[in-house]
Amino acid sequence: MAQANRMLALRLFGVPQAKAQAVLKAAAAQGCPGLRLLSREEELVVCVNVRADSEAEASRICKQWNEYFREQFGPAVFGEGDTELAKAALTGLAKKHKLFVAADEATGHLLEARIRNEQAAAAVYDFGDHSYRHPTKADRLAPPRALLDKYPDCPVQPAAGRARQALALSGADWAVSYQPAQGVQPGFVLVCGAKTVYLHALPPSAQPGMLAANWILDMLRRLALGLEMAQGVQSFAYGKPAPVLPVLQTPVPPKTETPRPRPAAAPRPAAPNGAWQKSGASVPQGSRAANLRSAGRQLFDESAQLPEPPAKKRNPASRPLACLVLVLLIAAVAFGVVWLAERPAAKQMTGAGYGTADYDTAARDYLTRAQQSNSQVAAYLALPKLGGTLVYQPDAAQPSQAVGLAVQAAQGDELARFVSSGQPGQARTNQIVECPAGSIQQLSQLDEEELLRDNCGFTLYTDGSTYRYKVAAVFYWDPAETGETAFDLYGLQDLSDQQDFLNFVLGVKARSLYEMPVDLEDEDSFVTLVADSSDASGRKLAVTGRLQRQDEAGFLLGKQIVQADQPLLPLAMYEKSGEEAPSVETLNQYWMNWYATGGATSSDVQQESGMPQEDQVVEGVHPLDPNATPIPTLTPPPTEAPATPSPKPSATPKPGTTPKPGATDAPQPTQAPGDSGDSGDSGTGQPTPAPQPTQAPQPTAEPSAGTITVTMNGVRQEMDLVECLAMIARNELGANAPVEAYKAQMVAAHSWILSQGGAPSVSGREPNETIRQAAREVANQIVTYNGRVAFTPYFASAAFGTNPSEDVWGSSRPYLVAVESPYDQQYASNWQNTRVFTEQEVADRAMEKLGVDLYAYSEDPNDWFGDIVKNSSGYVTSLRLGTATITGQKLQVNVLAGFPGRDIRSAAFDIAYADGNFSITCYGYGHGCGLSQYGAWGYAANGWTYDQILAHYFPGTSLSAVG
Description:
This protein is an alpha+beta fold. Helix content is 30%, strand content 19%. It is built from 27 helices and 34 strands. Strands 10-11-12-13-17-18-15-14 form an 8-stranded mixed beta barrel. The chain is globular. 47% of the residues are buried.
């Protein structure tokens, strides 16, 4: 009978890690199963992995330990599962109808990066509208002079004074501030209330901004819910002496930051219902709920009056001046009437959110009136957070008088314009819009990941039509470049010829700075925005959008954007940096294969290729050493946090994707995990020191290791074996993985290729010399079982352990069994994700793929899914959908496959239904059988050698030489 597997993940903040480890050690001594402690920037996750004979028993044990840890950690517990600290804090604030503001722009940007995607954010935070972004209040956010004179040498008082000013001007409950470390002064955060200021000094950190945001959010959460402050938080009365900050042992060098430009003011997206009312006065407590409900209408209302100063006695001598002012006021009103006539929809557009029907109506109305004033206006272009601009016809001349709001700020020939005539939306076309610097602010900065996440789509409004685009590529382009790396963007507007279409697709994908979650098909239509560079290089930033298809969901998946691996840059950038440009031919082959296969991963290819009925005999296989014996199966390390910190999610690539050069350092190896067979401690105890592993035999490197036949990037070819393995490893693990992980990947790939026979499909990218050297050392090694080449599949990350082969391909191998893979959650940035499908989408697919009428089965969608059975690693082996019983894999790769940007990444998942939508939260990435690439990364970073890694994931196998 299959065991029930249940995991408890309790999230904490504000608990010293030493205290948490002591609590977990005590729990382990009391028999708590599968304990693990994860940490990042003082946020902790206590994981309990329970396996029991029934779901009820597993739930009972989880509940027992949930209560135990909540009692031990108290108010430090802010949530369970995937609940983020930001969400917990904002939910608590909204529940208590509390509001907060940032005291300065730097603190505001820090917080906005953390909370901008949370639904409750606009209900409790002003996003600067009442403070540093307000046109009149921003200049008043200065600490009182009397306070500075009273405490001239205190670094805390200026921040407290500024926060108190923000509090008074906004009417919020709290104002927050973050001050980075300077010299020997540590960084600190503070939360200022009406009478009390709460202060916390920050320890040195590799990510000081994230740590500061965490502390601010936790302090706000505790204040809103009336909880005790965390250890280390001090308080003092405003205007009284502040606590003395500790002195840093290592001074922090001064850091110069470039001021960040403010985003365009119009049109801007509206806050959702429940957003904060825009008012200059304090918000009365009794009307807080009403204010929150009505804020969607009032957020951008600039008519609210500031408190008037006390009345002064009238001076007869001031009457002539008053008359002059009156005349000027009348003239200003007359000018305003004319100006408003030219921008009739501006107020509507600033009061409606991008992508809503109200915004669309306002934008089209704005366009229509602009065209009535100027027949050369062709369209209106809008982005979610950057505002918009009128787009003119190709031959439009600079008007003598500006037309419309967007053009009034333009100087010189700053009009956005189409490069050629033609209607957007036509299949196999690429319309180009030139966008000078004065047309849309910050468009040239969409090479910044944070800004791109907020603006990964745009809309073009033309006469009677609305075209929505999803950004498919963002790249640097040099119009003057010649030679192999040149890209004829302007020559690729008519894509009706198949070769032109492919040249365009390969060109933009090979150059894109980011991998965008947008697929491309033969009949797609495109628009490319070309922005001037902020420097004098002549380089442009091009943003290519793919038209949203009919019936395609309009989601903009900014969270799924990752930095691209080896984007092709203009040649001048390589010459300036001294780096070598990647092979254009290799890049084109790679992206051609991506396009032809629909973006299939290596795991997808292996899953579809299937497992051979039996292991293959390969000529020339012999032991690496005449006395070699099978590699012993190693006991996995204790289930505690890895000895080395995991790479940051933004810096850790999925296999096959790496950040820009220099963005990530390979994790430094630590002591190898100990053999726990004799361990007297469990869970969080220190691993028992193990003898250093014996280095795997290394055959002498030869000038050539031979050749191998594969279909590399869609091209069947006989390749140099070393180069083939190096290209595969580079693609699968990126540019900065530990060397031992590369070697394990190469040996597994070599074995898998030989097990398939013929010329199996693989994907590769141009490797660096470190990867090539690793390939030379293991090129002639393969994994064998009973003298035959083993079938050695691989995938990105495991769920709660690996998946046995019978649950993937229906038949078993003695060395493809479920094993633990404890590092995946730490090292994989994409280990857990949720995909949302509407009730109708599920019903339509069930009918199309299974012939099941779910509405006939039950009117309540809560009943549609049931009888879910999982194996010991969390992969769904069976479930019921209506009247059909299927595997989790079938739901993943068949029933709910093919929704762009919403692929279910593994067969280990949970399903929930609410508000007409099914949420499928999956764990791990790929089929789950064999070598986990992130697991190998984690083992290698913690001291394991490649032979140990392979022995763990393919137990009972041996390393052999071939050729």
